[in-house]
UniProtKB/TrEMBL annotation:
Transmembrane intervals: 20-38, 50-69, 81-97, 104-122, 134-155, 167-190, 210-230
Key words, A-Z: Membrane, Transmembrane, Transmembrane helix
Domain of life: Bacteria
Protein name: TIGR02206 family membrane protein
The keyword Cytoplasm appears for this protein: no
Endpoints of the signal sequence: none
Alphabetized NCBIfam families for the sequence: intg_mem_TP0381
Length: 240
């Protein structure tokens, strides 16, 4: 009976495996309870403090993981800097949850749902369960999604059509910065020089540099698809 559980220990995380599915199910259950409790039981100031503390916890996990690698003496500036999109967003989110700036919401909404969700569907984890990297990966990716949905459902924040293009422009700035850093460090942050080794959507976009070009072409349609439910909800409200 324990054999299926023992077989996943220290093994790579594959799509559809228990180490892939279980964290997602737990996060969905937690998110529903967390958001419902906050809406029904907490005053506005308590809601603001609660999500800020949650974001700080997610950020602390990232910070602790990098300290862990440094302490092990295995830290590599070419691969380990928190410059991948999700790690970077985890460090930025406490600023967002503190100030709750709308312009940050406009950018983070599309980056998190469009980018982080892809990381949830096709995980790229160097260490399997129960490694620190495994827990860091799921805490960051699922935590970011919980934060942005908290702002949508608890604070009732929603994007506008021009938010799509603001987020796209901000992404181009990030890509240019990563290209410069990749050149200086001979690195592969944001997978601009090589696709991830694990299965991902980029596998369907051809080899370098075609997967980058195709990825850029589908960003705005993807962001528009994310915006569509908000647009439809506004239209339905206007018809009432």
């Amino acid at each position: 009976m324990l054999q299926p559980l023992l077989s996943v220990i220290n093994n790579p995380v594959t799509i559809g495996s228990l180490p892939h599915i279980i964290p997602i199910l737990l996060a969905v259950a937690f998110a529903v309870l967390f958001i419902r409790f906050s809406k029904q039981k907490l005053a506005l100031l308590q809601q603001q403090k609660t999500i800020h503390l949650f974001a700080c916890l997610v950020s602390l996990i990232v910070f602790s993981y990098h300290l862990f690698l440094i302490a092990k003496g295995t830290y590599n500036f070419r691969t380990d800097l928190p410059l991948y999109l999700c790690s970077l967003l985890a460090l930025v989110c406490p600023i967002f949850t503190h100030y709750r700036s709308y312009w940050m919401f406009e950018i983070l909404l599309f980056w998190i749902i469009g980018g982080t969700l892809q990381g949830v569907i096709t995980p790229d984890i160097s260490g399997g369960f129960p490694s620190f990297d495994y827990f860091r990966y799921w805490t960051v990716h699922l935590g970011l999604l919980i934060i942005i949905f908290y702002f949508i459902f608890v604070f009732k924040m929603k994007p506008r059509l021009k938010s799509v293009f603001k987020s796209f422009f901000a992404l181009q700035v990030y890509v240019v910065i990563m290209m410069i850093l990749n050149y200086l460090l001979n690195a592969n942050y944001f997978y601009l020089n090589q696709k991830p080794k694990s299965a991902s959507l980029l596998d369907y976009f051809g080899d370098w540099p075609y997967y980058i070009l195709i990825g850029q072409l589908i960003v705005i349609p993807l962001f528009l698809l994310i915006y569509l439910p908000f647009k439809l909800r506004n239209r339905m409200n206007n018809l009432k």
